[in-house]
Amino acid sequence: MLPRFILILSALPIAAAMAARWWFGMRVLAENGGRPCKCDLARWVPEDGEAVQKAEESAHEFGRQLRLKALAEWQETDPKAAKSRASSKRFGTAVPPISGIVAVMAVMVAKIPVMGAIAAILAATALSAVVGILSLTPELAAINRAARKLREARSFPRRDDEEAVIRCAMAHAWKETLPPILALIHR
């Protein structure tokens, strides 16, 4: 009875996280990611002389670059919060596989039933998904700060391109918030 309750209780946050990833990440990238955008490289490339980039790319690629710039700036301005977000991502990467290994070994030595092992794996995955979603807010705030700077710099001649790039940057953050085991399932 308890494993079934845990299965149901774990399925809800997993389904909610997958739905949020699709709605705020995958759907937005599908709608806006293919848009060809043109930027002014003198305003787009940061002062530290990053690798040379193309002036014409898709909104998907510019969004990815904007997110990476935002994360780098965030690392400099608030390293404690950035490390916390990175730790939550590592938690989501490590906990489901480790719980799977422990559950399989527990089944092999006949300490828990198979249904209990499946429930434990799903519970660990649900916990990882919840931690990933809850720790996403500071990253989105960092992307918002970078987007504000992007708007002030007027890196994109067309406002529509700029908005598509910002939406794609936010979508990349949502896309990468799930634990990798769920990201493999939810392509």
Structure in words:
A two-stranded antiparallel ribbon has the order 1-2. It is elongated. It has helices at 2-32, 41-44, 59-77, 79-108, 114-134, 136-153, 159-175, 180-185; strands at residues 36-38, 56-58. The two termini are 32 Å apart. Helix 3 (59-77) crosses helix 6 (136-153). The mean pLDDT is 89. 78% of the residues lie in helices and 3% in strands.
What descriptive keywords fit this protein?
two-stranded antiparallel ribbon, mainly alpha, 3% strand
Distance between the termini: 32 Å
Shape: elongated
Helices, by number, come to 8
C-alpha-based Rg, rounded:
20 Å
Unreliable spans are none
Order of SSEs = HEHEHHHHHH
Strand content: under 5%
Helical residue percent band? over 70%
Question: How would you briefly describe this protein structure?
Answer:
With 187 residues, the chain is mostly helical. Helices cover 78% and strands 3% of the residues.
Record the SSE blueprint:
Blueprint (H helix, E strand, L loop, with lengths): L1 H31 L3 E3 L2 H4 L11 E3 H19 L1 H30 L5 H21 L1 H18 L5 H17 L4 H6 L2
Antiparallel strand pairs: 1-2
Helix pairs in contact: 1-5, 1-7, 3-4, 3-6, 3-7, 4-5, 6-7
